[in-house]
Amino acid sequence: MKWLKDSEENVILTMVPGDKIKECIEKTALEAGLVSASVAGIGAVENPVVGTADLLSGGYITKEFKGIWELININGNVTVIDGKPMAHLHVAIANPECEVRGGHLFEAAIGVTAEIVLTKLNTELKRSPSQRFPNIKVWDI
Question: With DSSP H G I counted as helix, E B as strand and the rest as coil, what are the percentages for the chain, rounded to 5?
Fold first, then answer.
C-alpha cells in the first residue's frame, strides 16, 4: 500500500496483491488525517466478501466470490465509529465471463492492483445504530 496527498482535499491510494482493501482505506484515512471522506476507485480483487442488507434480521447476508474479480467500481465513504475511521463501501465486480455482481463490501484482498481516491469531506460524519435496524450503523447527522 502506498498513498500520497494530491491536495488538501484528495488522497491517492494504490495497493498491491495481498493488501486488504477496506483495512488499507481505513489506515490511509487515519494516517492522512481524514476523519470523513468519500471513496472512489477501480482495480482487481481476490475472494471478495460482498453482502446485501437483510431486512428481516436487520443484518447482512454475505457471500464470498472465489478467484480474481475485476473491480469495476468501488464507492462509499469513511466516517467515524468509536473514534476510528470506518469505511462503508459498495462494489461492482465482474468475473472472467464479464458477469457482474455487487453489494456492500465486507473485505477483499487485492488481486492485481487498486487505484483509490479519498476526497476529504468538511464535516466529521459519525455513525449510530439505525432506529429500524440497530445492527446497521447509519450517518448520525
Answer: 10, 60, 30
